[in-house]
Amino acid sequence: MRAKGVILLRLNNYALFIIKNKTLRYSNMKMKLITSILVTLLSMTAFSQSNPKTVDQVMVLSGIKDQLSRLDITIASKIEEKKSTFSTPEQFEQFKTIMTTGLNSKNASTYFAEYLEKYSKEDSMKLVVTFFDNPFMQEFNRLKKEAAAPEKQKEMATYFQTLKDTPPSQGRIQQLVILNQEMRSSELTLKLVKNLILSMIKGANFNQPKDKQISDEEIKSKLATSLPANFEQQLTNQIIAYALFTYKDVPDEKLNLYIEVWKTPTGKYGLDQLLNALDYSFSKMSEVAGSSFSILNKSK
Asked: Which of 79, 118, 284, 295 is deepest in the core (most CB within 10 A)?
């Protein structure tokens, strides 16, 4: 009976040993699997993020880098509009310094690139580079850049005068309306204007003592009433008029091809990313300015 008990004890110990070993092996396998998944996820994340060089190419080729470099002039103009709301020149200068510390061309470009690097896919952005680097697209980019040159302003004014006697065809106007829709030019410009105004409203609000600051809802309300009811239509009309001059020597067939290019998945993806990056950039710049105001208010 004792021998039988010893055998059972040994069997139980052996079974326990087997169970422990299986558990250990299962635990090791589980850890290996988790490690493998983590490595895969990390490599996928690294792959999904865009390379700074690729992002810079997109910003240069799309023309957005050039637009952001001129932002300082627009920001200075918007800040100057607020001058009459300050009691003393010193208060205005303080406001101006803090606002331009947060809102400036350098920060705009930095945060714009940061968004694209973090939230766009490298393989997709390479396609966007190819999209903008195409000789056909570069030809149109050159036309836009030439039309925006200061020396072209006189020629543009003369061109608009001639339109009174020789107005453009309805077909050409319709082409440019469609082009504006596909390129989302009005949307991009409106977003830029609204972001600038919103940053000014937030800055002025941050500059107030804590008990006099308005809520986020009131800020949104101020933004909504800061632009005329028909502002978007006026903006679109200006963009169409500007496009009439920019593409005046482009045949209809060629302009139709240009419109079709913007309808492609790569064209749409590129525009989506640029619009999202613009929102992100202004949001980050407002945070910088807001932090500076918070520090200033605490020191008062």
From this structure: 79
Q: Confirm whether pTM is higher than 0.90.
A: no
pLDDT digit string, tens, across residues 272-288: 999 999 999 988 998 88
- CA distance linking residue 272 with residue 204, whole number of Å: 30
CB atoms within 10 A of CB 132: 20
* Range 238-242 contact pairs with CB under 8 angstroms and sequence separation of 24 or more: 239/180, 239/185, 239/186, 239/189, 240/173, 240/176, 240/177, 240/180, 241/160, 242/147
Q: Which residues contact 258 (CB under 8 A, 6 or more apart)?
A: 136, 140, 179, 250
CA distance 138 to 280: 27
58 vs 266: CA distance, rounded Å = 12
* Token digits of residue 270: 């590129």
Number of residues in the chain: 300
How many C-beta neighbours within 10 Å does residue 109 have? 19
Angle at 59 between CA 284 and CA 268, to 5 degrees: 95
Sign of CA dihedral 219, 221, 226, 227: positive
E strand or H helix at 109: helix 105-119
Question: What would the pLDDT profile of 130-169 be if each residue is shown by its tens digit?
Answer: 999 999 999 999 999 899 888 999 999 999 999 989 999 9
